[in-house]
Specification:
4 copies of one chain form a homotetramer.
Chain A lengths: L19 H10 L11 H14 L4 E5 L2 H12 L4 E6 L3 H4 L4 H6 L3 E4 L8 H8 L9 E8 L10 H13 L3 E6 L2 H8 L2 H10 L5 E5 L9 E5 L5 H10 L8 H11 L3 H24 L11 E2 L5 H10 L3 E4 L4 E5 L6 H21 L1
Parallel strand pairs in A: 2-3, 2-4, 4-5, 5-6
Antiparallel strand pairs in A: 1-7, 6-7, 8-10, 9-10
Helix pairs in contact in A: 1-11, 2-11, 8-9, 8-12, 12-14, 13-14
């Protein structure tokens, strides 16, 4: 018999709610009138905060959701006729409902990957098409950090990918829906962000907030200043401009203050480590490798996965390999993890008894 | 000398903040985990509430901003190759940054209008193109209620436009970014909504929330049920799906409860009436006709408009006719109005003295 | 009783066939193998011919049809997010089935016009939107020469429109589907073309061939060299690249040789003058003003137009004003015109007798 | 020392010219006026011919080039929001410059393939995404016959693929740019076409002409009648409508008469067999398997390929496997083949001597 399920599910970091400090910031910003569409003081403050965060002048375009953020980033990066090179498992290719193709009218050239990571060889191979008018012309290389498989690129790997891409005239986009978890894992504070994104040569990034305790707030960051008006016009064109933008800005102000965004992500990461360690004790190598960030991808027989999921929901990830995804978040507690591991133990025992 | 400006500007109803009841509802929904992307109980509750509101089963797709809502509505309505018929002043044609054309890859056939209203004659005239493969084929007629010029269609006018459009095989979209103000002006409670939208034969509407005290919440409503999965897929394709949708749903739950949405809009409308009446006392016919909803469009010389705007911002609306827009909102107070009228009096006197 | 109808209809210049010299050129080019997609000697020769024609180095992208040519021109001109300013009667706005919006995902901002001509005032008025992120941003001004109403811009008018557009940062596109007729009307040979297109400051033009005796051959001409590979890639993207391009090139080689294209257009123009003069003798001012090029737009009662059209087809042009279009072509003969005028006389007499 | 190169290259069947019978048909159609855009008697005749060819009433939309034909076919097949499933090597995915994504604003879901052939397993695997709103929804399965690698599907294979696709609610598109070669290879005359396309359950096909001796003529064929006006409107929208369509129709009339199209393709196929047989005698297994249609893909060291290509051009096909493509056409002669084999022998000997 399963106990009561944990207070927090392990389905996704976006099943979590709003961090109390973020909600407080929204509430505080709710006083009087402010001009709509970003002409407010919260928005200009958040731009300053991002400049400080990156240690240089960047362009910031606040946005409403993850898919839209990636699409805006690409819309600002692509030149007429160009395509995007990405992995088969990339969020833009696999999880965005063909929205990029619809809104950008552009090809995503997807290439096989290991653990969701793009290889330098793949970039070389696809660059062969450059100059042949009959083939799609990759103008942007899109990488995800942390990846959709919970892995991370090292700083060296990112640097090499940027170098190779730039050598072909491509620009590099980083989908950082979970950049907080990747930087937290690096463990060097905001300096780590600069090493990972500025020093490697990334051109433009999607800076995620919603998966890290915000209500609904993301941003496109250009590491080299981008024409403001054009970026804002394109943001409106891709449906990523809200009218009461001060409430989006306020969320980021709360997250960036005292680098709370890294604390929250760090907590989620460490809960994943605890979860993985406990799960390894129960299912051994089927737990997979230790998590780099806040997710793990255990291999589970249906006899285990089905009742466990029934009790406390999580998503299947790859039916071909029987892999599932367990994910922690800013609000996952040690008790939640222990309770979930208890459930795992029960599911495993029941499955064994049934045999 | 101007006094301190009013607490609320008259720039736009989306310069106002979040109604306290809406913020409370967001806060209340922030407890524990809930599956993302609308698979939560707030979302299913709001669907029930909309069914009750309309007195029939409707399809509800919650969305993030006004432009995106119109685009999703059109995306669900358009058949391959079709175009959209609208007025030159319609929001989709004039204020959405060419986002509809970008995301829908469709032509908006704009037609001259009076007071932002589409005429039956214009529909007949443009329908002449039907069947000619060289011309854009209008498949959807899009109307706005209340219009961008603060006017409203009568129920009979809407009914006739729907009838004519349907006779040509077109479907009718209603951009109801300010539907609350239009229904409140009608003064028949939610029955008025049904008369205006259901009985007239509207097919699909954009149901606005953000301009009426919500933080960021809109909805596409199909008055005849629409395939759920397809609508949700298209919503994701046009960047209108957020992950933590429970917080969007919670906003509407607060607004629909006890028809608070109509109270809020009604208040905004009546403040506009007070404003207009006072302004007429100062500038006479230049105040324009009495407002149908929550905006008025006074004709002002620059010598009046410029210092007034400097003191308390509002938007110019039509440079050719020297018309400006003053708009009230759910939080405009009588004191705000009086203060603004005082400022108007000062601006007028100063301009006269200068001559 | 009507006699036998003329050998050539007056429906359109594209109802005419292929000029024998063009067909001969196709036949001559049909010998042996040639690499596909424009890597052939006919294509490189035609590029040289166009350089000579314009008296400067231009970029030439041969194309397949008129709509596709305009779309390719715009595709090469538009920067991300930009829209196109054009008249309500422009071919791209009214006669291209919303293909520009579909393929370019861009707004055509149409503006009312007289006789199909864009006014400088309209450009100024629409340029007001520049810099406002909520409005479509006109980046290209598209003009048609000769216009869809058979009128022409003077060289001075073109020069002024280019100057004003450039002052706003817009580029100027010329839809020259009937450029041959406009240049022939100017009467200064290929020097006239240079005065009309090069000296006025046009950036890019659609150079029509099909309406002037070619089988199917058009070209996008950039008056300032454009990146070859990018232009070719975009041409393929908009479905305007054929495999056996040598046969497209061969058509233009025949037309440009000894400026035969101007002879053909000149003949069509003069046949229109003869037609108009005869028609004025029969229906007076209803014949409209003398044709600037190869079309006239008589006002005809249905009682005249219907039997006449039944006998020898032509198109109605504007139902609101009862105007129709009669058009001559490279192969219209004096006998065709006389026969048609005879028919007109009969139709008029019959209509009068009926009253 | 190489002799004079063959009169016909082995680069591509679209490097060949126009079959004399086709050119004669164009010339014959060039008499007098005919209404533009397909309202001519040649077009209506060709529709009748296609009905006879397929043994049933089909819908025919004549088109201008191969890429455009595939795009029109897909434009007529796709429902709102849907994507297209195809192989990684398919022409639409790899050789059409991202035009499908640009014009259709749709995702091509590409899947790894062997010899350019889609497997039933791939269809099952990709169909897993159906119903998940976050994933692209494959609504059309696109196959190529003969494939880009010169292989063919058997009738049974096509039948099974159609059955599986239909079971998921997908429609099946056949890219038949070289359908003539595939049907000719089957050796059952026009009955073979019906077995291959009608009886298997194909919904819509691209029927190629240009690669088989036509100048520039293709067609979209709907095996079940499709709304005429809608198809014609979409054809115009995707830049595939020419004005003087009679000359496109005339080309097909010549090809379909007495099934000359099969004679021409059959000749090309048999020349490929002769070429392959001779090449096998020189380079053994490096010649690859016997050609199914009119192409072979030999593996050649650069030392052989480079001088041979210099002498008589052909394309590399897959740099990773050192494979090249030799292709025959309607006008390849036995002398051409013998001459080319002579050249191959010389290139091989020279390369050996150099070692």
């Amino acid at each position: 018999m399963f106990p009561d399920p944990p207070g927090c599910s392990f389905a996704s970091d976006n099943a979590a709610g709003i961090h109390p400090e973020v909600l407080a910031a929204i509430s505080e910003a709710n006083s009087g009138h402010a001009l709509a569409y970003g002409a407010d003081r919260w928005t200009s403050n958040v731009e300053k905060e991002f400049n400080e965060l990156f240690g240089k002048e960047v362009s910031v375009f606040l946005t409403l959701n993850g898919t839209g953020t990636n699409i805006l980033a690409l819309a600002t990066m692509l030149r007429p006729g160009e395509s995007v090179l990405c992995t088969d498992w990339s969020h833009i290719n696999d999880d965005e409902a063909a929205a990029p193709e619809r809104i950008l009218s552009t090809k995503l050239i997807s290439t096989p990957s290991e653990g969701g990571k793009m290889s330098v060889d793949s970039v070389h191979a696809r660059a062969e098409a450059l100059g042949n008018i009959h083939h799609a012309q990759p103008g942007v290389l899109s990488l995800t950090q942390a990846t959709e498989w919970g892995t991370t690129y090292s700083i060296d790997e990112l640097g090499e990918l940027c170098e190779v891409a730039h050598s072909y005239g491509m620009r590099v986009h980083l989908d950082g829906a979970r950049i907080a978890n990747a930087v937290a894992a690096l463990g060097n504070g905001r300096t780590g962000l600069r090493q990972m994104v500025v020093e490697t040569g990334i051109d433009t990034m999607s800076f995620g907030g919603t998966k890290n305790g915000l209500m609904a707030a993301e941003a496109v960051i250009h590491l080299t200043p981008y024409p403001t008006q054009l970026g804002q016009h394109l943001r409106k064109q891709v449906n990523q401009l809200g009218s009461k933008m001060r409430f989006v800005a306020a969320q980021f102000l709360a997250a960036l203050k005292d680098d709370r965004w890294l604390d929250w992500a760090s907590h989620a990461n460490s809960m994943a480590t605890v979860l993985h360690s406990g799960a390894t004790g129960i299912i051994g190598e089927s737990a997979g490798p230790p998590p780099a960030v806040n997710s793990m991808f255990p291999t589970l027989a249906d006899a285990v996965a089905d009742p466990l999921r029934e009790w406390c929901f999580f998503w299947g990830w790859n039916s071909a390999s029987s892999q599932h995804r367990w994910m922690t978040s800013w609000d996952t507690t040690r008790e939640d993890v222990e309770c979930f591991l208890q459930g795992l133990q029960i599911a495993v025992s029941q499955a064994e008894n049934r045999n």
